[in-house]
Amino acid sequence: MNGLIHLTHDCNLRCPYCFTGAKWKREMDADTGRKAADFILDQVARTGERAVLSFFGGEPMLCFDTMKAIVEHAEVEARRRKLTCLFRMNTNGTLITDEHLAWFEAHDLVFILSVDGNQAMHDLDRVTASGEGSFGELEKRFPAFLEHNPAMMVSVVITPRNVGHAAAGLRYLLDTGFKYLIVKPDVTAPWTRDAVAELERQYNLIGDDYVMRARRGDELYVNLFDDKWLQHTKGAEAMGIRCDVGSSQVSVAPSGKLYPCVRWVQEEQDTVPALGDVWNGFTPDRLAAIVEASHAPKTPCGDCAYSDRCANECACEHYSATGRIDTPSPALCEHERVIVPIADRVGNQLWREQNLVFLRKQYPDAVLAARRAASKAHDPSEAPEERTNK
Ligand code: SF4
Ligand code: SF4
Questions:
Q1: Who's near 153: CB < 8 A, 6+ residues apart?
Q2: Which of the 8 DSSP states describes residue 236?
Q3: Tell me: the pLDDT tens digits for 282-341?
């Protein structure tokens, strides 16, 4: 189970697309945080899974001391219960110093960094309270971040405002050394026809850039393509990576209340009822109701040809965009209809070229079998008589 621990509602940035609600000063205290860790460990002790504690906000680095107290407590408690507990964080990165990086290394805490591409793209939305772009200072930290974790995941949001920079922005991140990109369109924003046409143009450019990098042997992951390929090659099995509200993950608000998703913590005003709290556990009927609603068929999807590859599983995202758990936003639907054909074009091209970067990820068993066959053929003890130099 993934326990998303919201350390604060506050943030030092004011991204207009932020879905974590108003920025106000309410922080989780250390006792509530320790209780939240115990609650997650108790849940996984019943199922035998591993626990993941992911620090979230607002900006969790505003509450680093509380994070430390929770991690140090969870390490002891997980050892005592013979459980595996991993630590994660989603952060805008602006407050992370070298001392923090050393502490993350000592405690195996891995963070996902939010950066919207290059400066031109990033500074359109990711601004401070006084409206200044946050890219300049953040960029200075990239070498230290990559040295700390060369496999660092970067999260990028594409909006109708920044879409014209998307291909250049992603190219910049890959050129800088970030190899693993999670790209999400802001589907709660209104996308005009022109903005969707630009999105399609940019995705085609990003696809062409992916092909160029794969041809020269770069290892990379861009969810826009890799996830669609995985859904194509693995079908229903790949759907296992999808979100599962209130079951495989739960969000803990600074007050200790439980919510099904990071999107629903917001101001804790109970526009969505809490699922319980860390002291008393889940309220079973609320949990059952949300799980059932999130698994219900999506309203406009019916027998849509894209339904088994569509990113329409996020009940909480639907609720944010349309006010209904079972109704994806029109922007999400348009996005999926744009990206699936482009992912297929790029995937088909790499398949025809028998590109190893592509094959290793999508067909690892076949690549391994081919390697074994090739090494047998080159093993003198296995090689046919006429292929040896006797
Ligand atoms: S940095 Fe993250 S939490 Fe802060 S305003 Fe931006 S999206 Fe919201
Ligand atoms: S593309 Fe649209 S209609 Fe089709 S499954 Fe996705 S959200 Fe539903």
A1: 112, 113, 180, 181, 182
A2: G
A3: 988 887 887 787 778 887 788 888 888 888 877 778 877 888 888 888 889 999 999 999
Report the C-alpha gap between 211 and 205 in whole angstroms: 10
Which residue bears the tokens 């074994």? 372
Instruction: Decide whether any atom of ligand 1 lies within 6 Å of the 13 Cβ.
Output: yes
One-letter amino acid at 329 equals S
Residue range 240-268: average pLDDT?
78
Tell me how far the alpha carbon of residue 111 lies from the centroid of ligand 1, in angstroms.
Answer: 15
Under 8 Å between Cβ of 111 and 91: yes
Cβ–ligand 1 contact at 156 (below 6 Å): no
Predicted confidence band of residue 390 (pLDDT cuts 50, 70, 90): very low
Q: Does ligand 1 have an atom closer than 6 angstroms to the CB of 184?
A: no
C-alpha 56 – ligand 1 centre gap (Å)? 10
Whose CA is closest to atom 1 on ligand 2?
333
Residue 245 has a pLDDT of 67
pTM, rounded to two decimals: 0.89
